[in-house]
């Protein structure tokens, strides 16, 4: 009981340090009726972030409070980042708070979520942050998907049920070529099960351009996480499993790999 109270107080302190409107997001989870309309949260650095109280508090909590990416990236300063599964932009903003000079490209295929991502991009328009209205996979296609559990962050074509939607996906190799074949310091992938198709479709030339990856792994009936690990190791990456979130993997090219955190 005591440890639970300590954790709640620590979470409140993180919200207070980051947001002027910290009460809005910190106590939203306890409201019976949560509005779906976008709400603007003022941040203490003079910027803001938009979120949908019904759909996005989990994303805010995982990234800004639990800082599940922090055990890998809290002191890292990757300059060129691809954010696959950009959602409303929480990860990109979390990175920009730590590395304002980063160049980030976020890919988000869900139209409703992309609308919020666009609002957040406008709040951070002085940063080198680009957004793309599609996801990445192994081919160009539009797929049927579901928004389960009223959480747009879990929108997936692999979900069994939920609010139906359509997702536009593009071949990662084609998009990388269109973007000018950039060197990517960090490839972040959180796309609710499509990580298998994405890694399988990366060409050898692109693998050589990637220094590190952080991937949220989603087991599927037809796929195994071992497949992802084997592919990463075959391309010369050391894989570390997260302690805060064991579904989060960090993979760094062996030529630059440091000791696991």
Question: Could you write a compact summary of the structure shown?
Answer:
By secondary structure, the chain is an alpha/beta fold. The chain has ten helices and twelve strands.
Query: What's the helix count?
Result: 10
Question: What is the mean pLDDT?
Answer: 90
Largest sheet: 7 strands, mixed
Whole-Å distance between the termini?
29 Å
| Beta content | 15-25%
**Unreliable spans:** none
CATH architecture: 3-Layer(aba) Sandwich
Instruction: Assign the CATH topology.
Output: Rossmann fold
Name the strands of the widest sheet in spatial order. Answer: 5-4-3-9-10-12-11
- What is Rg? 18 Å
How would you describe the shape? Answer: globular
Query: What is the string of helix and strand elements?
Result: HHEEHHEHEHEEEEHEHHEHEE
**Count of individual beta strands:** 12
CATH superfamily: Vaccinia Virus protein VP39
**How many structural domains can be distinguished in the coordinates?**
1
Structural class: alpha/beta
The helicity comes to 25-40%
CATH class: Alpha Beta
